[in-house]
Design goal:
By secondary structure, this protein is of the alpha+beta class. The protein contains 5 helices and 4 strands, in the order βαβαββααα.
Length: about 100
Amino acid sequence: MHRNTPTLYIQSGSHACREAMAFFAQHGVSLDVRKVDDSPQNLQRLLEVTEQTETPTFVYKDCIITDFTIEEFLDEIQTYPDILRDLGLSLEALED
């Protein structure tokens, strides 16, 4: 895992994963995207990091957000102001 780049674990065909990818792209957030259904290694790493297999899963530093909608992600990420800064996101911009 790249410690300076957030990792997003996804599954092909998942509506929530497509929405997460679109959200991060819209906000210019660079990601290390890992498909768990294409790679046993990615699935194993997801299990090691989170002890579950739900997607989408966002992992960055000490922040792990699993099986989220965009609204759930925004609610959770607010508790990590340093990570918001690292990602170049602001709460004001996200509320628009």
